[in-house]
Input
Amino acid sequence: MNTQFHPATSTGAYLAQIPADVQLRAADYTHGGHWIVLFSALVGVAINLLILRLRWLSRLRWRARAGLVFAVYYLLAWTLDLPWAMYAHWWRERHYGLSQQGLGAWLSESLISACFSAVLLAVVAMLMYALMRRAPRTWWIWSGGVTSAMIIAVTALAPVVIEPVFNQFQPLPAGSQRDAIGALARQAGIPAGQIISYDGSKQSSRYTAHVSGLGGSARIAVSDALLAQASEAELRAVVGHEIGHYVMHHELWLAFGYSALLTFAFWMLHRLYVPLARLLGAAHAGPLSDPAGLPLLSIILTLSFLLFTPITNGMTRLIENQADVYSLEHAREPQGMALALLRTADYRAADPGLLEEWLFYDHPSIARRIQRALDWQARH
Ligand SMILES: [Zn+2]
Output
């Protein structure tokens, strides 16, 4: 979107600058997205019921180790899910004008990330099945520890091993944008070289930046889609927000949060596996420690995380709010922040009701974030 925005004095005046057709499309995209969360879980359950019926894993388990059974299961489930994923993550993004990526490029990226996941999760699965056999009553606590370590390792390695496979990351080109960002970085005590740009427009036209990595690998990456549009004030506001994530170690807190939820989900799995197997007449899947039961295990974890949606969204909204406050206090660009937020209004309905925001929004709504920026400005 290249709509020219002008400074305004109230949240209402800001939101009124979003063209009506953009508002309608964003509302449609956002509400559809809530259903996508539910349907993705249901599609996952249906696929697992199908794999369970086929009984392939029951035949395979005598010939292969748990890690291999998992890899076969994962790639089978991924293939069955592909038409749905194509609709939800490729076709829909293009339909709403949020991506220009071709199907071939999308498919090859999906396949690469599926291979990454298959290998990583196969290692986790192997460890978990070993723990289930050795500690049948407390395996879920130990597995929580193992998966936390894995989440933290993957988060730390992502900028080094995973992200470069999908995008090109480069130092910011010399110029006023780099100078503006460099000043913010110095003020926060971050090496300026840790703030870089990447060709995010390859996958998505979203106006966005993100922090990835942990400790020495932590960095802030700004999409070229943002750099091409942002004024200096907007850029300072956005990068100030990302620096907030960086200095408050939000990546690490999120990893802890997800690990805690995962441990709780493992406990649910521990309690619900046998009743679910009985309910579905799936005695052939064997006990919990048998990898032939992977579809049952997956159904329980999928439904657990569907139930956790308001919690995971609450976790991310919390850190987003903290990062906004950090940006206001340090970059001191309330107008820049409000304008930058307006530019994200093409993929987020700007002003949802409180309950809708609480249940479904992984970021605070644009209206509330602009209101905070303007309140901050009024106070200073
Ligand atoms: Zn953020």
Notes: Residues 1-6 have pLDDT under 50 and may be disordered. The chain has 15 helices and four strands. The longest helix spans residues 20-54. The beta strands are 169-171, 195-198, 209-212, 219-223.
